[in-house]
Amino acid sequence: MVRMKITVHGRVQGIGFRFSAMQAAYRYGVRGFVENHPDGTVYLEAEGEETVVEEFLQWCKKGPIGARVERTETEYAGVEGFSRFDIR
Question: What residues contact 58, with CB distance under 8 A and at least 6 apart?
Fold first, then answer.
């Protein structure tokens, strides 16, 4: 079990990124949350088995239709024990 902090840069707000990320998290079996930050980035914390968190990260690098992901920043952190994936 791992937890990854992900910051997504680019055109990622106002296009449904958070809702799409929640759907992707359910599809991959990832728990955590997603939120918009004032600087225009989207911040996510994803927790689960390492392979599914990595697959979720690959989704984040593309995003939903309409997104233009320029880059992602990632950092591993200690497991929090999230019970579901939320939009904040």
Answer: none
Residue tagged active-site, from 3, 11, 18, 31: 18
Choose the catalytic residue: 36, 68, 84, 88.
Answer: 36
Over residues 7-16, the mean pLDDT reads 97
Q: What is the pLDDT of residues 36-63, one digit of tens each?
A: 999 999 999 999 999 999 999 999 999 9
**Residue 36 annotated among the catalytic residues of the structure:** yes
Cβ(44)–Cβ(60) below 8 Å: yes
Which CATH number fits the domain 2-87, given the four candidates 3.40.50.2000, 3.30.70.100, 3.40.1050.10, 3.40.630.40?
3.30.70.100
18 a catalytic residue: yes
